[in-house]
Write a structure and sequence with these properties.
CATH topology: Rossmann fold
CATH superfamily: Vaccinia Virus protein VP39
Shape: globular
Number of helices: 9
Number of domains: 1
Distance between the termini: 34 Å
Helix content: 40-55%
Amino acid sequence: MTSVLAHAGVMDGIYRHQRHIYDLTRRYYLLGRNDLVAALKPPPDGTVLEIGCGTARNLILTARHYPQARLFGLDLSSEMLKSADATVARSGLGGRIKLAQGDATCFDAGELFATSGFDRVFLSYSLSMIPAWEAALCQAMLAVRPGGELHVVDFGQQTGLPRWFGNCLHAWLKRFHVTPRKSLGDAMATLAADHDASMNFSSLYRDYARIGVIARR
């Protein structure tokens, strides 16, 4: 619990001011988010959870893509949730999007959202900011209903880009406590096998980003 509170404090410290310009700046380098939303395709009246929802940018885009879906967002940072609440209110989607503060590695969906699971769960550039990211990935999978899907997009290793670019990007990300997860694909493959699920995983934009889907049977 102490480590979780400490990490929450770090996140609040980073986003206390950055949350006001987050969406404006991140649009240029958080690539693949729109690809993830386009692939969600929840069933009619389906439920969608974003873990690490930030400003709710992805939730609002998802709500507009899938007007029958019900959306839920979880974030550890109280500062980011301030922006998320305001953004959802301005969008007029408050009746379809519910937000809650919680830890990605150990949350109770029933307690937070009065539901036992979701048709789609996704993490967009959040695993690279969660120290216990593998625990968060496992927890996300537990929140997926039978027949549902877990979607993930995050930084890759930039293997198809000049080495200097990858080195500079990683050094810059480190300033914001962001660590691209080199073994993300392996971790998702293991998780899929443990749950007797299928997985698709690929690189985007010359391995700038990596995107994967685990589908429960």
